[in-house]
Design goal:
Blueprint (H helix, E strand, L loop, with lengths): L1 H27 L7 E6 L2 E6 L2 E6 L4 E7 L1 E2 L6 E9 L5 E8 L4 E3 L4 E2 L12 E5 L4 E4 L5 E4 L4 E4 L9 E3 L1
Antiparallel strand pairs: 1-2, 2-3, 3-4, 5-6, 6-7, 7-8, 9-10, 10-11, 11-12, 13-14
């Protein structure tokens, strides 16, 4: 009977300490500035304001401006930051990507996701450009392969190789 009480008290105190920790993190932020705040990663929080989302640190400093439509989950340490603008196929514009360490890399040129392929693989990102041509971007968002209008379909890189289809 004594063991049950000890285990019960241990669980109770653990739950109380977790709830106090969660509250102290949220209290560092200014909830009045945002309509929603959700933990996104270590010291990263997804915030919503006027229907747009962004990423901030727990101290309130902005990592990704609150101007985005969607942020994908992390894959190979990167999450794509997407805008609301779409191309003719309905693919979302890529504004840049966020690393799981909290670094945001914005793209200067216009590129769009491909259906089911909104992630970096082997440090290459399959995309459409503004003219609908398929190709790959490197980690800086710079075109490195394709974009000549010859590829009808492309797949992610795996172990240094990717499958492409020609028109």
């Amino acid at each position: 009977m004594m063991k049950i009480k000890v285990v019960g008290l241990t669980v109770l105190f653990s739950l109380l300490s977790l709830s106090m920790t969660a509250q102290s993190i949220v209290w560092q932020l200014k909830p009045g500035n945002y309509s929603d705040i959700v933990r996104f990663g270590p010291d990263l929080y997804q915030v919503t304001k006027d229907g747009n989302i962004g990423i901030i640190h727990s101290d309130g400093s902005i990592v990704v401006p609150v101007e985005c439509d969607e942020i994908t989950g992390f894959y190979e340490h990167k999450a794509l930051v997407l805008g609301s603008q779409t191309d003719a196929e309905g693919n979302k514009r890529i504004l840049g990507y966020l690393t799981d360490k909290g670094q945001y890399v914005p793209f200067s040129a216009t590129f769009y996701t491909l259906e089911g392929l909104a992630f970096y693989s082997d440090d290459m990102l399959p995309v459409n450009d503004a003219k609908g041509r398929r190709g790959y971007l490197d980690e800086k968002g710079i075109p490195v392969l394709g974009f000549k209008g010859k590829w009808s379909a492309i797949a992610p890189f795996t172990e240094g190789y990717a499958v492409v289809s020609f028109y």
